[in-house]
Structure prediction request, 349 residues.
Amino acid sequence: MITSIGYAATAARAPLAPFNFERREPGEHDVLIEALFCGVCHSDLHAANNDWGSARYPLVPGHEIVGKVVKVGSAVTRFKVGDHAGIGCLIDSCRECSPCQQGDEHFCERGPTGTYGGYERGTRIPTYGGYSNNYVVAERFALKIPQNMDLAATAPLLCAGITTYSPLRHWKVGPGQRVGVVGLGGLGHMGLKIARALGAEVVLFSSSESKREDGLRLGASDVVISRDADQMKAQTGRFDFILDTVSAEHDINAYLRLLKNDGTLCLVGLPEKPTLFSARSVVFGRKSLAGSFIGGLRETQEMLDFCAQHGIVSDIEMIQIQQINEAYARLEKADVKYRFVIDLASLKR
Prediction:
């Protein structure tokens, strides 16, 4: 077994604290990754607090992991020792169902295996996440980090990047289209950058005037204040596609009205309460209300290569692991621009 150290929650809303545990030795198809950086996703906070009612403790969060390969199994072909590699939200799936065969492992019919908070497939070995010094994963579920990318700022791409890239690609966003992005947070700021790089004209919708300057800096051609009824009305029927990244309760009918005929509003946020919409909002104009969830391994690799080509990384604030509880408190108040990333070298301090 491999000696490991991380930070774990031991109960709902308990502070994260140092936690010693063991990982299994790599098998013939596995790689051992020395974790260098890990992004802090809002879902980490939800999981640690058991907001979704499914947490298993002790829980080591983290599914935006970037590191260095330090050991490879005898049958590994895609990685060698010294390569930079990433691990996102998934570390396994059944590999046999139709979605898995099509590269949509995140839609595995038997349920994908998350990077933390569960058990390895076919065993009772807990999956501990990336707030730790290492990870063992099958090479099929590891990602190659393109050369010359800023490793720390690349880490959030493994969740926030693919969560926004996947729907933009699926609905074929590109030149000549007008695209809206609702919300400027960890997801929204990536949506702006990627939609702009795909060639679309991008408009940010924010409830706060204070986000205007950053929205324009990050790629928006205009910023619309969603609390301003006149500004919203002026956008009626002007959008081909709107990506809604907001997880707080809000009125999606207001955005459905902004779509052109045959336009699509895609939700990637997860509000706690059921979302209500009027049938009239979609019937008149043959509009679509859709959703999207991360992406498969093939598409995630495509996203990383695309971001490398276009010089896209996340805007981050680096923290030491000892600051994680402070970071969680700030995250609850949306006090971060736009993603915390843990420097895992601090585990050794």
Q: What stands out?
A: The domain at 161-291 is CATH 3.40.50.720 (Rossmann fold). The CA atoms of residues 244 and 257 lie 14 Å apart.
